[in-house]
Design brief:
Elements: H1 7-10, E1 14-16, E2 22-28, E3 35-36, E4 49-53, E5 58-60, E6 74-76, E7 81-84, E8 98-100, E9 105-108, E10 122-124, E11 129-132, E12 146-148, E13 153-156, E14 170-172, E15 177-180, E16 194-196, E17 201-204, E18 218-220, E19 225-228, E20 242-244, E21 249-250, E22 263-265
Parallel strand pairs: 2-4, 3-5, 4-6, 5-7, 6-8, 7-9, 8-10, 9-11, 10-12, 11-13, 12-14, 13-15, 14-16, 15-17, 16-18, 17-19, 18-20, 19-21, 20-22
Antiparallel strand pairs: 1-2
């Protein structure tokens, strides 16, 4: 970036609106950036897209100056070395529809106030050090299609309120410390394609209602404590291509599955 040139025309990763105001800033895969996240980004009030990702030497907390970016729609800070909490000031960014903070070292809980961002379509907090329960208030995010909270330290059960996310197609809670059973309220997730709950401490039966979620293509429930039979209703899923229920306490026989199922793992059970 040469300060003597026009940033809107000559700077890689910069885009401007018709009035010459910076509305998109994308910086990815830059090994030579060695510092905390620049708070000066908050001085770009017309920014709609902010992506600072795959910058392994960018560290520190997410700066509070980002609270000034009230036009922000897309916020991607993935694959860095950021620490500290998920900031509560995100609730000031009412237009956000995409948040990706995955693959950092963020810690603490998910702020329940995140539910105020009712335009959110996709939330990815995977591969951090987040803890505490999954906030039931996330069930208010009615536009959400993707909720990815994998590889953290979340505990407690799946909130039944997640069944209110009628547009959800990707629910990934793998590799946490979650317990309890799969709540019946998830039977309302008619648009669900991907259900990934492996490597937790879930117990109880695999619910037969999964066989009514006809858009499911992938179910991963491995490395839990599920017991009882594999529901025969799973054989009614016309698009199911992968089912992994290995490393549980399942008993009974293996039901018939559709030809679409090309990857089946039922190993390390009592079938």
């Amino acid at each position: 970036w040469d300060p003597n040139t026009n940033c809107c025309k000559n700077w890689t990763g910069i885009a401007c609106d018709a009035n010459g105001r910076v509305n998109s800033l994308i910086v990815i895969n830059a090994d030579d950036i060695n510092n905390e996240f620049p708070s000066s980004v908050g001085n770009l009030p017309f920014l709609e897209v902010l992506q600072f990702s795959a910058l392994p030497h960018v560290s520190g907390e997410i700066p509070s100056s980002l609270a000034k970016l009230t036009n922000l729609v897309h916020l991607d800070l993935s694959l860095n070395n950021l620490t500290g909490p998920i900031p509560s000031f995100l609730t000031l960014l009412k237009g956000l529809n995409f948040i990706d903070f995955s693959s950092n070292s963020l810690s603490g809980p998910i702020p329940s106030s995140l539910s105020q961002l009712t335009n959110l379509i996709s939330v990815n907090f995977g591969a951090n050090k987040l803890s505490g329960p999954i906030p039931p208030s996330l069930g208010r995010l009615k536009s959400l299609t993707g909720l990815m909270l994998y590889a953290n330290r979340f505990s407690g059960s799946i909130p039944s309120s997640l069944g209110q996310l009628s547009r959800l197609n990707n629910l990934n809670l793998r590799a946490n410390h979650l317990t309890g059973s799969i709540p019946n309220s998830l039977s309302k997730l008619k648009n669900l394609n991907l259900l990934v709950l492996d490597t937790n401490r879930f117990s109880g039966p695999i619910p037969s209602f999964l066989g009514r979620l006809r858009k499911l293509t992938l179910i991963v429930l491995a490395n839990n404590r599920f017991s009882g039979p594999i529901p025969a209703s799973l054989g009614n899923l016309p698009a199911l291509s992968l089912l992994d229920v290995s490393h549980n306490k399942l008993t009974g026989s293996i039901p018939e599955f559709p030809k679409s199922l090309t990857n089946l793992d039922v190993s390390f059970n009592k079938l």
